[in-house]
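Let's practice the habit of predicting before peeking. Look at the sequence and jot down your guess about where helices and strands might fall. Then scroll down.
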Amino acid sequence: MGQPITVVTKPSSRAGVVRYETNRALTGMGHERFQPGDEILGDTPTDELARRLFARGGIAGVHVNGNVITVEFSDTEVDGVEEIISGLYLYWVEGVEVPSDDELTGAVG
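Done guessing? Here is the structure:
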């Protein structure tokens, strides 16, 4: 459930850097940068995306501006990043229990 993000992967002129363009803006007008080891405490979509990308491993930096996510890789393996981005707004995925109607409405049973 949720709405997947459409992602188009575009090469960069810099080796080890890939741009991902999405069909929705993830930031306002500002730039957001994340480095490995940063303590990411926020709960914005870009904060969650950065946490997921760093948890994947092999990421040396993440930059987000509007609908463009620029990822700098610390290794040559780029697989899986597009799926992480496209699944950012998905919930109730495999392994997550869907709440009952009573849980959703707050009814006491």
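How did you do? The mean pLDDT is 87.
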